[in-house]
Amino acid sequence: MVHALEIIHGLLAPDGLLLDIHPSPDPPPIEVRLGDQYHLAGWLKEADDYVEYIQADQALEEVVRRRLFSLEERGMFPFNTYADSMDELCAYLAETWQDAVVDDQVAGRVDDLMRSPEKDKEVVLRELVQISCLRALGLG
Amino acid sequence: MIKVRIDPENSEASALAQYANNFAGKRVLEVGCGDGRVTRLYSPHAAFVHAIDPDEEDIASAQKELPPHLQDKVHFEATGIEDYAGENRFDAVLMSWSL
Prior knowledge:
Oligomer: heterodimer
Largest interface: A-B, 39 and 36 residues
Distance between the termini of chain A: 23 Å
Largest sheet of chain B: 4 strands, parallel
Helix content of chain B: 10-25%
Helix content of chain A: 25-40%
Mean pLDDT of chain B: 93
Strand content of chain B: 25-35%
Order of helices and strands of chain B: EHEHEHEE
Strand order of the largest sheet of chain B: 4-3-2-5
Low-confidence stretches of chain B: none
Distance between the termini of chain B: 26 Å
Structural class of chain A: alpha+beta
Largest sheet of chain A: 5 strands, antiparallel
Order of helices and strands of chain A: HEEEEHEHEHE
Strand content of chain A: 35-45%
Mean pLDDT of chain A: 93
Shape of chain A: elongated
Number of strands of chain A: 7
């Protein structure tokens, strides 16, 4: 990851901007909305326990420490995905997020909640995403 | 065919506007563009976008989904950052869910 950031530094104009967007390493909750009520079913796991997001943070810290970039601004924003069923959410995850693991217990809880007679309902995956704004520094 | 509703609140678009002014007028290299979902959010404001991803299927999808009015200024290439051989210098680089 640090090597990729070194390459990027070489591709940026002086004072160029690097914007990095990656999810928080905290497992995102899976909820079910029934009408205006949200019910926690559990958390989405990853095969490698979200280690790559921790490594991404460490890589950014390293290039700042080496004065290739300066950190100008950092924040978080919510990133929600809505599905009509657990099967639909799982199909999406299988296509776009191969490391994602939904425990049978969590899937079962979602299915139980979705069997509610409430007509207005959906499954919600709530991710929290970090956005970092860095400025390229000269080598001299 | 993905049926889920992804970020209908447009939080990601708002963050791009807040933190980078949507790269307005800038020459942008996007690393790990995937199917171009994020590219389509900010590219109307940028001067020029070169978006790369090593997945050829994703790049084909990104090209297919690109609106006609953006075809002249957005270019997709199936490559990773370590193999990228472009000679351009960019005003900004976006790593979209790819670091």
